[in-house]
Recover the amino acids of this structure.
């Protein structure tokens, strides 16, 4: 199979979808890997390293998209990239289609097979290709939140860890999954007071156990949510429903109850956000203010730490890429039910039920595609 690794063009996205070790594994197995020149530069990987691993360097994205049978990316394709996709081609990347009808329509029109990292799901419900980026984003949420709490950045002027005689800052995290757990870990490390709202009693017991009772856990309902949001210095949105749009749990009226200069980091922004006032921002213009509250809603947070993020991501994506390259798309999906859940779009049809439901589109069952 001919695989293509283009340079990411989303605003300030410095990750790359494959590292030289992956290129070598694929080329050793007889596949051809096209790498756009400069694709790895943001992650500290040179063209020479890709070439030594057996990759074929190409000068332009246009030629790479034209020749590749499978395009492997990090972020969803931008408009110029969507225009280059074609019927029969495989696109393997983070797609986050549920809140993005325009991208969904573009992929349907192109007739591409759209495989989404974020909907590949193990039998136990874990998301192996989303987990490492959720770990990064969860930890980053506290890092960036601390930055924007500084008065010089428009924040409240609170030091999360406090000092003797002064209370630490209050961090409220909505969702106790991978993002929420990693955010809590970093917030506790800084000495903050931490509250996690979670709807699963079993998950709350788990969080209480691993954090030794140092995290306050509350059942996520409208009453406790409103009460917790009002006292937050830093509010982290960490809600995820695989493949679907995130529910808008924090209403505009709750935002109005927050202290002026408090900060929101909505990590769920890729799926539309769990804060009613959320809209996607970029690393170039990362924040906006609503009712005096600073919102940080960057849709590719891990792109700011690409050296860590690229290697964390490619560690888990390569085995799935390899399976598709070896067996072809349908062959790989038939053999691997976990991988099969990643198919969102196929030749003009919506295959993932959560994407179809989020946009009111007809749903085509995976079984009919593989028949």
């Amino acid at each position: 199979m001919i695989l293509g690794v283009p340079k990411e063009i989303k605003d300030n996205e410095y990750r790359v979808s494959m590292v030289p070790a992956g290129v070598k594994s694929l080329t050793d197995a007889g596949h051809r890997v096209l790498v756009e020149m400069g694709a790895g530069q943001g992650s500290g990987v040179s063209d020479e390293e890709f070439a030594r691993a057996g990759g074929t360097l190409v000068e332009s994205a246009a030629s790479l998209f034209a020749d590749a049978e499978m395009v492997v990316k990090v972020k969803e394709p931008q408009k110029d990239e969507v225009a280059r996709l074609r019927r029969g081609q495989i696109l393997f990347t983070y797609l986050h289609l549920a809140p993005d009808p325009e991208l969904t329509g573009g992929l349907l029109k192109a007739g591409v097979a759209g495989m989404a990292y974020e909907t590949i799901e193990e039998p136990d419900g874990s998301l192996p290709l989303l987990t490492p980026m959720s770990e990064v984003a969860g930890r980053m949420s506290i890092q960036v939140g601390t930055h924007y709490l500084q008065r010089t950045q428009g924040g409240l002027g609170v030091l999360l860890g406090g000092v003797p005689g002064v209370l630490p800052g209050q961090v409220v995290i909505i969702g106790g999954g991978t993002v929420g757990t990693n955010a809590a870990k970093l917030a506790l490390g800084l000495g903050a007071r931490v509250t996690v709202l979670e709807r699963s009693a079993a998950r709350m017991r788990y969080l209480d156990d691993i954090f030794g009772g140092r995290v306050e856990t509350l059942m996520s309902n409208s009453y406790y949510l409103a009460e917790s949001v009002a006292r937050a210095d830093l509010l982290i949105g960490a809600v995820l429903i695989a493949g679907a749009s995130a529910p808008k749990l924090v209403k505009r009226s709750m935002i109005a109850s927050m202290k002026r200069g408090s900060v929101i980091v909505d990590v769920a922004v890729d799926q539309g956000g769990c804060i009613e006032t959320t809209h996607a921002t970029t690393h170039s213009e990362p924040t906006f203010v609503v009712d005096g509250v600073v919102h940080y809603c960057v849709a590719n947070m891990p792109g700011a730490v690409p050296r860590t993020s690229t290697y964390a991501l490619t560690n888990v994506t390569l085995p799935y890429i390899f399976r598709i390259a070896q067996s072809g798309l349908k062959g790989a999906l038939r053999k691997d039910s976990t991988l099969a859940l990643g198919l969102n779009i196929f030749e003009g049809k919506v295959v993932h039920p959560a994407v179809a439901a989020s946009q009111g589109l007809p749903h085509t069952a995976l079984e009919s595609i593989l028949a």
About this structure: Residues 2-119+309-370 form a domain with the Rossmann fold fold (CATH 3.40.50.720). The first strand starts at residue 2 and ends at 5. DSSP finds 15 helices and 15 strands in the chain. The longest helix spans residues 306-327.
